[in-house]
Amino acid sequence: MRGRDNHTSDISALNFDATAAKMVWLIRFTLLFCLCIMRMSALNLFPAKFEIAERQASVTLTCRTDKDKITWKREDANTIENILQSEFEILSGRDLTVIGLQEDLTGNYTCWSDSGLEDHTYLLLDKSKEATAFQINCTAETFSCTEKIKCAWTPNDLTGEIAFRLRNARDNGDWVSQPVDGVFYLPHSTDSYSEESERLLITGEAASTCCYVKTEYSFFLRDIIKPANPNISICSIKNEGSDNQIVEVKVEPPSTWPQPHSFFPLKHQIEYEIRHDGELMTIEWEDKSKDEVPGSITKLRVRCRDLLLLSQWSEWSEWKNKCMNVIYSCGGKNAFTCQ
Ligand SMILES: *[C@@H]1O[C@H](CO)[C@@H](O)[C@H](O)[C@H]1NC(C)=O
Ligand SMILES: *[C@@H]1O[C@H](CO)[C@@H](O)[C@H](O)[C@H]1NC(C)=O
Ligand SMILES: *[C@@H]1O[C@H](CO)[C@@H](O)[C@H](O)[C@H]1NC(C)=O
Question: What pLDDT is recorded for position 326?
């Protein structure tokens, strides 16, 4: 019996080994398969070398090599194929002419000699005239080149994996293709003390595995101003505890806002919550950093905009409620700094 038992467990160990080997093979195969798919279906960065052409256009790709005998391959999301002379693809020396471009003729064209890969070009279908595929939105925290412009893009007609890049064409800027939290930071040369005479021109390009779209967005810096959020620096309480209690609030302009502040005045808005019914109220004031909020309140926050341009509002500051709590804990004291 013992022998037999041993024998069975040997067999099941063997079976197990075989199953494990199969599993490993399957996992490897799946990984490899996924890697292949991923390599092509995600264009995370703009292809380093690409050509664009409109639908139905003919485009000639040239293999940069000194070899005389070359062959071409095309790699798209699903396949790698050798290119043979056909009515769509005409071979002539180092040139390959693609006739009547459509999605199915896009992809990575590589040329090969008997010593290996010689050159490659990614061919994309230019759909810029077919649709407004995306929009660019930019804001600037200040009037000068001390801060970069922040731009974001929203797709209208684009789906799937898309590589995207932006540049400031007016100032001959470099392409920026790495966003930070979805925002592209573009340098520019605008000066806050002189009249801006020429509009900024922002060019955006998007590429999917098959297609390319370009959009331009042009504006004066002054039209996209959105200050950074201001900060509540001091609150102090007058007539504390009485019916006509007043909270005095002092606001610090955003640190990126240009100086002198008298020359670049801000308009402020405070939103506050009334203690007894939780209702939210707002007050606005212009061209000074201090104002008073009447009554007993639980929290408040502030935002600002350029007073002369009536720019976009900044984001709201964080809600401040610490100062209201301190009122109760430190009795008679009537001035303190918010945290
Ligand atoms: C196109 O193929 C070449 C050669 O294999 C490769 O170096 C390049 O990264 C490919 N381009 C894209 C965008 O996949
Ligand atoms: C673009 O800007 C407009 C206002 O100028 C704003 O309403 C919209 O939410 C912005 N879109 C994005 C994606 O930032
Ligand atoms: C806001 O004020 C607090 C305290 O005064 C300070 O620590 C913080 O850095 C300020 N934040 C900004 C954005 O200025």
Answer: 41
